[in-house]
């Protein structure tokens, strides 16, 4: 009796286990929902989604899809600027005052009306918060004291913007396409503002909602951000109040996936629709799969490593030059970045006005040793490099580590996630930093400024350009050349100035620029109209449908 | 009787196995011989010992054995070559470095970690355990609560926290693993100590006026050693895995060091198309861990017969 009871229990439990297995099996064929776009994307560099503070590449894509600006680049021809929120604009005869007329009946995702008041608030907020991207606006002479006067709403639908010099209008408009000029919902931001105690560093009694907007949303773009969870996902939903053409898909989810191979597997299994960080070997493999397409676009992003001039060894000009001879550009181009970039050594990416496509440096250990000997470092030295834990930078860092070793320089790699390495870089406590730089707006001045302007080289310096981050006290003739080009209305002359500047920077700067990125994405052929834009804030997802 | 003893040839099998050793020396050698016989009767244990000896030899002669430089590769010409390519028996990795040479040099790091952890953790555990077991009372209570605190965390999680605080690097990884692995040794030593703290031979030593310090050091510790050695040997596989785990997470050895766990981490990107980059160091870890486990099992059977049946 007991025996037979046991047998039946065994049969029961076995069949229960079997049915569980059977029930679980169909999950292997999971597909993404028909109204949702799921992208696999390494989003570990996002530290905030507040457009007044965000200055990271992945964030640029999120804010571009969720916030509107006065003007935007024409997706069809990026050399032109078209109105986004602005219906039209005029420039005064002296070239100093810009008047924007807003489109009628604009609304934020929250339902609040969008008026010139909000535009003025957004400018004031960005300038007063004075976070990393604030310099884009303050370069026009805006300060916390005069911003209310220089960027103001003269009527509910009219916004006037006064700059301090007669810049080329295309330059001003190009800058206004940057993330920092995104229009923020004044009501929502003010509701969530936190009281601050004014201090010497921060003179205002409110944080303008900055802390809340780190994860909160107050925009008017085609999508609204439902949630951002660090190193997990960004979830966006169609904004019913968007003034323009409604997005075709209801939801867009950016899933944090760091590994290229993980993204490839997920793409092949249909777990994600788009894989954004495919590495060369996975691009190769994916391109042979049926049902998966590839799209690519050259980006205004260059990968470089930079030598902090606070380090006594790295500050020697011969050492900086030696580093430029100690990168195996050809081998890196043929292997590590094949298909996702091409070797490029000047600071202006191919495609921008005046970009110089000379690549004079080659791996030359003997020459580098000679330079090191000249600098009194015949026996080499030890130095650290902060490396974000993603490809291709880790691969390049390891390759550079090997070539440096041939000249006696011992490179210690300090790995970290995007947040750690960037924070250290911005605090100027690194030795060598390897990373990428994406132009803030489509104008040569963006890169010229960040690479060659460093007005205040002290730790308190406000203009946190790349030159400042590496404590490079830029020779005056270099920064002046860039500034002069900014006011030059003749495009050919302007281009010539930039070309000359690039040659000098190439020779003197502590920046070793390695390659220019080509962004590749593998996507399911079910998607229609999936395209990558020419910059990180033009990777729009709203035209995509399934 | 003594006549028979006298006829035994010194160091012969009979001399070693004699029931009535005439000197301490003979008794010790005899005991060692018995242990060795018990150990060598176990084929698997011998295989384990063989693997470990091989590992040590490879580590010593790494410079001679490695066909290529483990940290310098030829990115342009020899990237991701499959196993069996000319000159690269086990293939090359994504930086064009020879995997075999990296494995050979990596054996040094593995041994370095294992030996250092054993040297740091085992004595600490032994001292804390024996003192706690012999002293009893509040000393025991305090020491064991501290041990409890360490045991309350999963080993790898605690090691991760420590490395994150100390900064990545192989020395810090060793330290972190050592800090997390002494508590079980303390527990074992304490349990063993408790079993003989009230036995007659300890009372006899006490009567002869030995200090507690001397009793613990000379009479308790030696008796705890054999079970400790077994436990440490069995744990070595775990230590290797933890070190590899830290390396895999980027918190152990830093590039370009050919640490096996870090090698797997860098190879996992290619696992779909170039399986060997991750599989080779994985196999190395598997074999060495297996070796330590087999050796530990054999040692337990030989040193600790009462546990062998369990």
Quick structural gist:
The complex is a heterodimer of chains A (546) and B (310). Chain A is α+β, with helices and mostly antiparallel strands.
Account of the protein in words:
- The complex is a heterodimer of chains A (546) and B (310).
- Chain A is of the alpha+beta class.
- Chain A has 3 domains: 1-64 and 221-291 and 525-546, 3-Layer(aba) Sandwich (D-Maltodextrin-Binding Protein, domain 2); 67-212, Dipeptide-binding Protein, Domain 1 (Dipeptide-binding Protein, domain 1); 298-518, Dipeptide-binding Protein, domain 3, CATH 3.10.105.10.
- Helix content of chain A is 33%, strand content 21%.
- Chain A is built from 19 helices and 17 strands.
- In chain A, helix 14 links the parallel strand 14 (382-388) and strand 15 (410-416).
- Chain B contains 14 helices and no strands.
- Chain B has 2 domains: 1-41, no CATH class; 53-308, MetI-like (MetI-like fold, Orthogonal Bundle).
- In chain B, helix 4 (43-60) packs across helix 6, helix 6 packs antiparallel against helix 11 (212-248) and helix 7 (137-152) packs across helix 9.
- Chain B has 310 residues and is mainly α.
- Chain B is 73% helix and 0% strand.
- Classes of the chains: A alpha+beta (546), B mainly alpha (310).
- The A-B interface holds A 259-261, 264-265, 279, 281-282, 285, 328, 330-332, 334-336, 389, 391, 394-395, 397-399, 401-402, 405-406, 412-415 and B 71-73, 75-76, 79-80, 94-95, 168, 250, 254-256, 266, 268-274.
